[in-house]
C-alpha cells in the first residue's frame, strides 16, 4: 500500500488504520469480483471495523471504491518508479514500464486485476502511473527522442496498449509475458518515433527484479 506521513497521535493513527482497512477491503472486493454492490455492512465486516466507522471516512460506497482504485494506482506507480531509478532515456522508461507491468501479473495480481477492470477511466488521472508516463512522454518530445507532437494524445495510445497487455497477461498466463511485453513496447516506441532497430534494442535491455 502507498505510504504517507505517519499520524501524529494515537487518535490519528487509529483513524488512519481504520480508513486504510476499509480501502484494503474495497480493493480486495474489486480484485476478486469487481462487484461494487457489496453492502456497507459487508465491507465493514471484511475490514473488521464497526459499521458506523464507515461514515467517519467516506460519504458513499462510490467514494470508497474510487479511493480504493486510486490507492492501487498509487501503489502501482510507486512499484514502477522504484525499479526504474537511474534510467534517463525516455524510451527505455516507457519500455521498462511495459515490461515490469507484465511481470506484475504474477507478483502483484490484485493490482493487475484492478488495473485491468478499472484502469481505462484513470488513463489521464493525476494519480498512479499516468502522471509519471506523461512526464516521460513530455521529456521525450522535448529532447527529440519522440517525434509525436502531443504528449496527452500519446498517453492515450500508451495507456490503452498497456491495459491491453494487462488483460492479455491475465487471460493468457500460458504466453511468454516478457516477450509479449517487449513486442508491444517496441510497437509503442516505433509509434512514438523511435527508429525500428533502436526500439528493438531498447526493449530487450536487462530489467531489475520486482523483488
TrEMBL record:
It comes from the Bacteria. Residues 39-58 bind DNA. PROSITE patterns: HTH_TETR_2. Keywords: DNA-binding. InterPro entries: Homeodomain-like_sf, HTH-type_TetR-like_transc_reg, HTH_TetR, Tet_transcr_reg_TetR-rel_C_sf, TetR_C_40. Residues 16-76 form the HTH tetR-type domain. Coiled coil: none annotated. SUPFAM superfamilies: Homeodomain-like (SSF46689), Tetracyclin repressor-like, C-terminal domain (SSF48498). Pfam families: TetR_C_40, TetR_N. This is TetR/AcrR family transcriptional regulator. It comes from Streptomyces kaempferi.
Amino acid at each position: 500500500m502507498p505510504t504517507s506521513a505517519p499520524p501524529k497521535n494515537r487518535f490519528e493513527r487509529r483513524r488512519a488504520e481504520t480508513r486504510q482497512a476499509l480501502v484494503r477491503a474495497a480493493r480486495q472486493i474489486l480484485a476478486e469480483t469487481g462487484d461494487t454492490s457489496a453492502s456497507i455492512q459487508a465491507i465493514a465486516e471484511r475490514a473488521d471495523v464497526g459499521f458506523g466507522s464507515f461514515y467517519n471516512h467516506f460519504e458513499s460506497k462510490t467514494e470508497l471504491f474510487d479511493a480504493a482504485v486510486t490507492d492501487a494506482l498509487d501503489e502501482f506507480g510507486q512499484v514502477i518508479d522504484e525499479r526504474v531509478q537511474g534510467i534517463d532515456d525516455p524510451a527505455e522508461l516507457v519500455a521498462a514500464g511495459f515490461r515490469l507491468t507484465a511481470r506484475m501479473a504474477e507478483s502483484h495480481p490484485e493490482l493487475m486485476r484492478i488495473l485491468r477492470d478499472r484502469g481505462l477511466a484513470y488513463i489521464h488521472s493525476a494519480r498512479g502511473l499516468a502522471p509519471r508516463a506523461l512526464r516521460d512522454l513530455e521529456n521525450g518530445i522535448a529532447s527529440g527522442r519522440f517525434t509525436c507532437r502531443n504528449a496527452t494524445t500519446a498517453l492515450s495510445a500508451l495507456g490503452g496498449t498497456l491495459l491491453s497487455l494487462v488483460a492479455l497477461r491475465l487471460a493468457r498466463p500460458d504466453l511468454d509475458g516478457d516477450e509479449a511485453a517487449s513486442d508491444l513496447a517496441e510497437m509503442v516506441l516505433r509509434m512514438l518515433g523511435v527508429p525500428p532497430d533502436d526500439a528493438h534494442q531498447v526493449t530487450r535491455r536487462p530489467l531489475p527484479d520486482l523483488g
